[in-house]
Specification:
By secondary structure, the protein is α+β, with helices and mostly antiparallel strands. The protein has a 5-stranded antiparallel sheet, covered by helices on one side. Strand 1 and strand 2 form a beta hairpin. The chain is globular and about 50 Å long. The two termini are about 30 Å apart.
Amino acid sequence: MDDLFDKIIRGDVPSEKIYEDEYTYAFLDINPNNPGHTLVVPKVHSTNVLDITEDDWVHLMKTVRLLAPKVKEAMEADGVHVYMNNEPTAFQEIMHTHVHIIPRHKGDGFHPWKGTPYSSEEISKVGDAIRALL
């Protein structure tokens, strides 16, 4: 593959690198939700959580776990969001696995979505459908 993140990893496209090891690369998002918004990507290309190998996922999460408290501290944040979008319907724009680390500050205006509660019948049906595939 040769997407934007592959080009950043290779150094063909400049980035503000935060961290790099044998398996992962982390850099500042150029369109951040808040200053310090960091993206962590695996060096081996995968599209998202649906196709990343278990080993690459473990390496990715180790890097996220290393960096999240550092980003929070450096930005003097009150909290930190760690999340990823998987597939275009879930707002994934670059088809290369990546995790967002976003420092959060009280009153920063970045709001998560609101959920809709299940009915007791619906929650059982949804649970059964997922468990059936395990």
